[in-house]
C-alpha cells in the first residue's frame, strides 16, 4: 500500500465522531469607533509609518523626483505614473537592488495593521520582500476592522500568491531585542488616501 | 449543616495547627463539624505520579469515612481538586459522586456556601498571598492571569475582612511555587529554583508572612525560607482567618 | 540529537540551573514574552470566544481529516502543485532527497519548520553530502553552533548576545566583541540575502493548509520563507497532516490568535498564502504522518493535534523557563512537546510528562484549548502502566499506597517516624534526600491533628 493509502486508512480508522463546525458570529467581534486611527496606531506600534493624504498628487511628485535623482524605484500604481510591468523576468539579484517599491494594497486591517497584496499588485512575488524600502497605498474606504472582515473582502485563492503584510521585516532573535530590517524591507510607509 | 472535616495526611502529621484553625473557624461560623477518625489520604501523591491504579484503596477508605455528610471541607485546594476529578469507587458510585459534588476547599466553602461577609479576625501584619495552582486554576478560587475573564478572588475577599492585615500581591500573582507533589524531589533543582523565585518576588514587598490555601506549597516555601535564614514566615489562610492577634 | 540527549529532563535542568544568573535571564525574558501575550490577549474582548472557535474548528477538522486531506490534495494538484505523502520521518527525508538529487541541486535554503527538525532532515541531508542553510536568524545562529533550537518560535532564546557575537565573529567575520543586536542582525542580513539570491531550492514549513483551496499559509516576521520560496526554482513545503483547516475564512480565527499568543504581536509581519507555483517554478507539498495517525486514535491525547505551534505554553511554563529547551531533548520542547513526544517514542520520552508541576497555566494560555496539563497527568498513568518508570519510584509509591490504605498502620508510622518523614517515603528513600538538599524539613509537632482532636474535641 502506498503511504497515501496507509495514512488515509489510518486516519479514517482513528478519527473521532464527526463534530460540527462553529459559525463565526461577527457581532461577537471587537468594534472600533475610528478605523483609520486604530489602523495608524497599530501600524506605528509594529514599526510602520502612516501618512494621510487627500489625493496622490504629493506622492506622485516625490516619486518623480526620486526617479529624476536616479534612485532604483519600482512603481506598480498607475495613478503615480508609469508602471513597471516587466518585473516577472527580473532575477532575485536584480530585484535585490530595488531601493523602494510603490505598491497598491487591496484591503487594510485595523486590528493588526496588515495589508492584503495580490500577486498582480506586486508584479513579482519577490518584490515586496526583497526591496529595501516599501511604500503601500491604500484607500481609506478599504480599511476593515478585523481579519474576519478582511477575508470576506478578498479572494485569497484568486491568484497564485497573496500576502497579508504588516510592517517592515523584523526579528528579535538576539536576546529579544527588536531589530527592524531582518531580511526583507527595512521600512514600510502606508499612504491612506481619501 | 453536617460538615465532614477532611484533614489531608501531611497536615495531620506536620501541621496540626492548620487542622485546628479550620475546625475552630467552621464551628465559629455555625457548622456542625465531625472529623472521621479513620481518614488518611486522598490518593493524590500516587495518582499524580502515574500510579492512579494504586490509589483505589485510598478512594475506598475516603468514601467509607466521608459518606453521609452534607459537605466535606478541607484546607487544601489540591487534595480537594484531586477528589473532585478522580474519586471513584465502583461498589459505592453514588456515594463517591455525592462526595465529588460536595467536597469543598475551605475558602470556597466560606464564600460560596456559608456566604461569609464578615469575620471577627485580626492579623496586623504585612502578608503576601500565594495562589496555589490547583485551587486557582482547578477549583477557580480566583481568576487567573492567563484568561480574559472578570477578575475575582475568594481568598482575597476573605483576607480583606481581617482587621489590620495589609495584603501585598507579588508581581507575578499566580506563578507556581514548584512544589508539584513528587515533582519536588524528582525535579529537585527546578522545584527549588521556582520556590526561591516566588519567595524573592514576595520579599520585594517587604512582607512578614506568606499565606495560601495549600499547606503543601507553604511547606515547600517554608523549607527554603528556613534554610536561607529568612525572617519571613509561612502561615495557612485558615490560621489567619481564625486569628485574633 | 541534542548534546544533552542522554540526560533525562531533571538532570539536564539541574545543569541548566547551575548557571543561576543565566537561568534568571532566561526566565525573565520568556516571562516578558508571556506578558506581551497577555497584553495582546486582553486587548480583545472576544479572546475567550476566539479560542473556543479555534478549538471547535480544529476538533471538527480532526473529525473529518481524511476527507479534508483528499480535498486539499486534489485542489493543490489542480493548482499545479506536486503532492507527496510520507508515512514517517525517513520517507519524508527520502522524498526531499530525491527531489534534490533529481535536479542535481547544490544550494538549498530552509525557513523554519519544526517538522523538518522532528524528522532530522538537516542531519539526513548532511550524511548525503548536502548542506542546507537555515535562514531564520535564530535558526542560523544555532546551526552555526551545531546545536538544535531550544524553542519553536525563538530558536536561540537560550543564548546571550555575546554568544551570538562570538559565533558570528567565527563564521561571518564580524568584529570581535561587538554585541550590538542591530549590528549582528545586519551582518546576518547581508550573509543570508546572498544565500537567498543564489539558492536553487527552498524548503519551508506550513502553518495552515486550506482544504477548500489547496493553498497553504506560511507565517514569518523576517520574510525569510518568502525570500527563499520566491527566489528559488523549486519550493518544497513540508507539513504534518494536522495543519489542515477547512476553509480560507477560518484563517481569520487562527491568524488572530497565532502571533498574539506567540509574541504578543497583533499578527506576524508576513502571512503568505501560496496557491500556485510562479511561472517556471516547481512547487511540492510533503504531507507527513510520523505517528500522528496513531495519536489521532488515542482518545485521551488526540486533541494535542490541534496545536498551532505558537509556543505560548513554553513561555508560560515555569518549568520550561527554568530548565531551557534542550533539557527536553526533543525537537518540540515545553509542555506541548511533553504530550506529543511520548507518542513518537515512549521509552525515550518517558521523563517528559513528569517535567511539570501540573500547574495548568499551559492549558489556559493555549489558543486552541488543548488540555495540556490533563494530558500530562494521563501520560503519566500510561507510562507507569507500560512499565517506563524507574523501579525505585515504583517501590516507594507502592509502599506509600500500602500505608495510606491502612488507617491503623498510617497512624503508627506517623507516630514512629514523624521526625524523619518516614510516612513520605519518596522523600527519604533516596540516599541523598533531595528534599533536604536545599530545604529544611518541617519541624515535627508534638501531636498529630487526630491526636489533638481526640484529646480536645471528641466527646
3D structure, described in words:
The complex is a heterotrimer of chains A (194), B (245) and C (459). Helices cover 28% and strands 23% of the residues of chain A. Chain A is of the alpha/beta class and 194 residues long. Chain A has one domain: Rossmann fold, CATH 3.40.50. In chain A, the strands form 3 sheets. Chain A has a 5-stranded parallel beta sheet, sandwiched between helices. In chain A, helix 4 (92-95) links the parallel strand 2 (73-75) and strand 3 (100-104). With 245 residues, chain B is α/β, with parallel strands linked by helices. In chain B, the strands form 2 sheets. A 4-stranded parallel beta sheet of chain B has the order 2-1-3-4, sandwiched between helices. A 4-stranded parallel beta sheet of chain B has the order 6-5-7-8. In chain B, strand 7 (209-212), helix 12 and strand 8 form a beta-alpha-beta unit. Chain B starts with a strand and ends with a helix. Chain C is α/β, with parallel strands linked by helices and 459 residues long. Chain C has 3 domains: 44-290, Rossmann fold (3-Layer(aba) Sandwich); 306-385, no CATH class; 392-456, no CATH class. Helices cover 51% and strands 10% of the residues of chain C. Chain C has 23 helices and 10 strands. Chain C has helices at 9-18, 20-42, 47-63, 65-78, 89-102, 114-119, 121-127, 137-144, 161-172, 181-198, 224-231, 251-262, 292-296, 312-316, 318-321, 334-344, 361-365, 372-385, 391-404, 407-417, 425-428, 434-438, 449-456, and strands spanning 82-86, 108-110, 132-134, 201-204, 208-210, 215-220, 234-240, 244-245, 270-274, 282-288. Chain C has a 6-stranded parallel beta sheet with strand order 1-10-7-4-2-3, with helices on both faces. In chain C, strands 8-5-6-9 form a 4-stranded mixed beta sheet. In chain C, strand 5 (208-210) and strand 6 (215-220) form a beta hairpin. The N and C termini of chain C lie far apart (66 Å). The model of chain C is unreliable at 1-5 (pLDDT under 50). The chains are: A alpha/beta (194), B alpha/beta (245), C alpha/beta (459). Chains B and C meet through helix 1, helix 2, helix 3, helix 4 and helix 8 of B and helix 1, helix 2, helix 17, helix 18 and helix 19 of C. Chain B: This is L-lactate dehydrogenase complex protein LldE. Chain B: Pfam families: CCG.
Amino acid at each position: 500500500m502506498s503511504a497515501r493509502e496507509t495514512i488515509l486508512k489510518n486516519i479514517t480508522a482513528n478519527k473521532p465522531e464527526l463534530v460540527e463546525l462553529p459559525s463565526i458570529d461577527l457581532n461577537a467581534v471587537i468594534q472600533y469607533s475610528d478605523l483609520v486611527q486604530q489602523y495608524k496606531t497599530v501600524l506605528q506600534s509594529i514599526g510602520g509609518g502612516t501618512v494621510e493624504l487627500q489625493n496622490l498628487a504629493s506622492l506622485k511628485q516625490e516619486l518623480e523626483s526620486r526617479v529624476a535623482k536616479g534612485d532604483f524605484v519600482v512603481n506598480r500604481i498607475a495613478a503615480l505614473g508609469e508602471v513597471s510591468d516587466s518585473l516577472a523576468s527580473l532575477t532575485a539579484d536584480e530585484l535585490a537592488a530595488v531601493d523602494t517599491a510603490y505598491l497598491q494594497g487591496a484591503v487594510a486591517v485595523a486590528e493588526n495593521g496588515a495589508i492584503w497584496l495580490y500577486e498582480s499588485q506586486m508584479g513579482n512575488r519577490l518584490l515586496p520582500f526583497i526591496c529595501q524600502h516599501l511604500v503601500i497605498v491604500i484607500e481609506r474606504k478599504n480599511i476593515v476592522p478585523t481579519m474576519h472582515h478582511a477575508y470576506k473582502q478578498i479572494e485569497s485563492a484568486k491568484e497564485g500568491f497573496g500576502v497579508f503584510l504588516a510592517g517592515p521585516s523584523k526579528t528579535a532573535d538576539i536576546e529579544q531585542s527588536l531589530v527592524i530590517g531582518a531580511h526583507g524591507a527595512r521600512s514600510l510607509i502606508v499612504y491612506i488616501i481619501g | 449543616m453536617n460538615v465532614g472535616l477532611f484533614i489531608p495526611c501531611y497536615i495531620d502529621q506536620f501541621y496540626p495547627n492548620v487542622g485546628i484553625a479550620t475546625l475552630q473557624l467552621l464551628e465559629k461560623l455555625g457548622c456542625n463539624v465531625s472529623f472521621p477518625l479513620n481518614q488518611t489520604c486522598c490518593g493524590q501523591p500516587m495518582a499524580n505520579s502515574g500510579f492512579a491504579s494504586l490509589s483505589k484503596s485510598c478512594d475506598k477508605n475516603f468514601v467509607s469515612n466521608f459518606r453521609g455528610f452534607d459537605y466535606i471541607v478541607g484546607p487544601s485546594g489540591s487534595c480537594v481538586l484531586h477528589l473532585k476529578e478522580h474519586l471513584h469507587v465502583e461498589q459505592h458510585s453514588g456515594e463517591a459522586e455525592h462526595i465529588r459534588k460536595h467536597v469543598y476547599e475551605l475558602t470556597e466553602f466560606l464564600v460560596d456556601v456559608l456566604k461569609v461577609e464578615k469575620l471577627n479576625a485580626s492579623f496586623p501584619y504585612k502578608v503576601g498571598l500565594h495562589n496555589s495552582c490547583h485551587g486557582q486554576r482547578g477549583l477557580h478560587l480566583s481568576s487567573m492571569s492567563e484568561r480574559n475573564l472578570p477578575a475575582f478572588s475568594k481568598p482575597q475577599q476573605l483576607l480583606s475582612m481581617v482587621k489590620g492585615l495589609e495584603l501585598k500581591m507579588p508581581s507575578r500573582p499566580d506563578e507556581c511555587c514548584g512544589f508539584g507533589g513528587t515533582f519536588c524531589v524528582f525535579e529537585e533543582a527546578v522545584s527549588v529554583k521556582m520556590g526561591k523565585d516566588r519567595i524573592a518576588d514576595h520579599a520585594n514587598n517587604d512582607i512578614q508572612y506568606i499565606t495560601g490555601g495549600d499547606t503543601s506549597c507553604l511547606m515547600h516555601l517554608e523549607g527554603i525560607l528556613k534554610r536561607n535564614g529568612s525572617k519571613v514566615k509561612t502561615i495557612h489562610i485558615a490560621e489567619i482567618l481564625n486569628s485574633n492577634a | 540529537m541534542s548534546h544533552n540527549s542522554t540526560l533525562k529532563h531533571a538532570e539536564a535542568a539541574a545543569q541548566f540551573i547551575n548557571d543561576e544568573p543565566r537561568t534568571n535571564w532566561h526566565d525573565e525574558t520568556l516571562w516578558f514574552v508571556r506578558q506581551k501575550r497577555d497584553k495582546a490577549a486582553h486587548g480583545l474582548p472576544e479572546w475567550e470566544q476566539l479560542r473556543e472557535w479555534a478549538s471547535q474548528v480544529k476538533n471538527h477538522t480532526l473529525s473529518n481529516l481524511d476527507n479534508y486531506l483528499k480535498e486539499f490534495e486534489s485542489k493543490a494538484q489542480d493548482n499545479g502543485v506536486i503532492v507527496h505523502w510520507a508515512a514517517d520521518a525517513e520517507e519524508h527525508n527520502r522524498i526531499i532527497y530525491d527531489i534534490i538529487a533529481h535536479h542535481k541541486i547544490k544550494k538549498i535554503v530552509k525557513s523554519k519548520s519544526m517538522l523538518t527538525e522532528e524528522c532530522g532532515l538537516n542531519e539526513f541531508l548532511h550524511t548525503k553530502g548536502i548542506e542546507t542553510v537555515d535562514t531564520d536568524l535564530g535558526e542560523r545562529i544555532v546551526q552555526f553552533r551545531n546545536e538544535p533550537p531550544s524553542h519553536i518560535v525563538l530558536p536561540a532564546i537560550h543564548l546571550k548576545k555575546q554568544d551570538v557575537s562570538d559565533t558570528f565573529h567565527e563564521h561571518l567575520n564580524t568584529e570581535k566583541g561587538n554585541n550590538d543586536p542591530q549590528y549582528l542582525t545586519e551582518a546576518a542580513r547581508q550573509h543570508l540575502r546572498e544565500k537567498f539570491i543564489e539558492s536553487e531550492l527552498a524548503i519551508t514549513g506550513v502553518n495552515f493548509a486550506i482544504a477548500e483551496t489547496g493553498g497553504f499559509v506560511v507565517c514569518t516576521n523576517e520574510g525569510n520563507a518568502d525570500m527563499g520560496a520566491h527566489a528559488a526554482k523549486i519550493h518544497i513545503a513540508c507539513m504534518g497532516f494536522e495543519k489542515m483547516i477547512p476553509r480560507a475564512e477560518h484563517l481569520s480565527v487562527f491568524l488572530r490568535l497565532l502571533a498574539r499568543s506567540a509574541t504578543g504581536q497583533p499578527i506576524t509581519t508576513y502571512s503568505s498564502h501560496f496557491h500556485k507555483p510562479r511561472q517556471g517554478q516547481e512547487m511540492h507539498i510533503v504531507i507527513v504522518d510520523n505517528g500522528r495517525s496513531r495519536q489521532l486514535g488515542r482518545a485521551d491525547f488526540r486533541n494535542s493535534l490541534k496545536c498551532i505551534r505558537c509556543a505560548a505554553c513554553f513561555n508560560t511554563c515555569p518549568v520550561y523557563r527554568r530548565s531551557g529547551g534542550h533539557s527536553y531533548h526533543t525537537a518540540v520542547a515545553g509542555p506541548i512537546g511533553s504530550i506529543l513526544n511520548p507518542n513518537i517514542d515512549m521509552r525515550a520520552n518517558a521523563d517528559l510528562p513528569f517535567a511539570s508541576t501540573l500547574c495548568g497555566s499551559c492549558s489556559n494560555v493555549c489558543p486552541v484549548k488543548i488540555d495540556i496539563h490533563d494530558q500530562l497527568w494521563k501520560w503519566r498513568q500510561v507510562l507507569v502502566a507500560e512499565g517506563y518508570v524507574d523501579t525505585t519510584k515504583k517501590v516507594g509509591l507502592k509502599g506509600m499506597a500500602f500505608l495510606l490504605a491502612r488507617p491503623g498502620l498510617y497512624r503508627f508510622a506517623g507516630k514512629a517516624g514523624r521526625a524523619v518523614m518516614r510516612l513520605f517515603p519518596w522523600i527519604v528513600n533516596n540516599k541523598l534526600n533531595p528534599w533536604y538538599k536545599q530545604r529544611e524539613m518541617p519541624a515535627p509537632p508534638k501531636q498529630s491533628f487526630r491526636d489533638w482532636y481526640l484529646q480536645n474535641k471528641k466527646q
